[in-house]
Amino acid sequence: MAGMKAASSLTGRLLVATPLLTDPNFARSVVLLLDHDPQGALGVVLNRPTPVDVSAVLDGWGQLTGQPAVVFQGGPVALDSALALAVVPGEDDQPGPLGWRRVHGAIGLVDLEAPPEVLAGELGGLRVFAGYAGWSPGQLEQEIAEGAWHPVDCEVGDVCCLDPDGLWRAVLRRQRGPLAMLATYPDDPTLN
Q: Where are the domains of the chain?
């Protein structure tokens, strides 16, 4: 991370869309940042399930996927590609299983080219994403400065949340101060 202090990297943190962000790709989204450095940022939207079952597109991975066992739309970039995140219980300083690379804490990327049975007993949760969200150098920082995103801490359960439609409100509710009040923001403020 030449040029960017490690403390300023948002890798492993969540971006919670503010009500000001109305782009349909990101409105009320919760994005996990998988990489953030001077070259830009990359993440996946955690709360956009699709109707497509993982087992219909990735042979052998469906049985390892948490509920709902569907592909999530990770963002508007490269929708024809898939990436997977999995939670592997254990200590941060311990190496993970073969086919899994730690991103932050117990959360890591899964090599979908690996045989699923290699990871079957190792994963505490798995989620598959079609596409991702990407930002060019300085773009994410600008969007945060403009008030489009709130960077907050990620909890392991956010990755495989059983209620992805409620994740935006749940993440906001657990924040301190005025940020928690955003959880009560109506879906359509004009109806207030």
A: 6-182
Q: Which fold has domain 6-182?
A: VC0467-like (3.40.1740)
> Identity (one letter) of the amino acid at 175?
Q
Q: How far apart are CA 151 and CA 131, in angstroms?
A: 21
pTM as predicted: 0.89
Contact between 54 and 45 (Cβ < 8 Å): no
Sequential DSSP letters for 90-136: S-TTS---TTEEEEETTEEEE-TTS-HHHHTTT-SEEEEEEEEEEE-
> For 123-181, how does the pLDDT look when each residue is reduced to its tens digit (9 = 90+)?
888 999 999 999 999 999 999 999 999 999 999 899 999 999 999 999 999 998 887 77
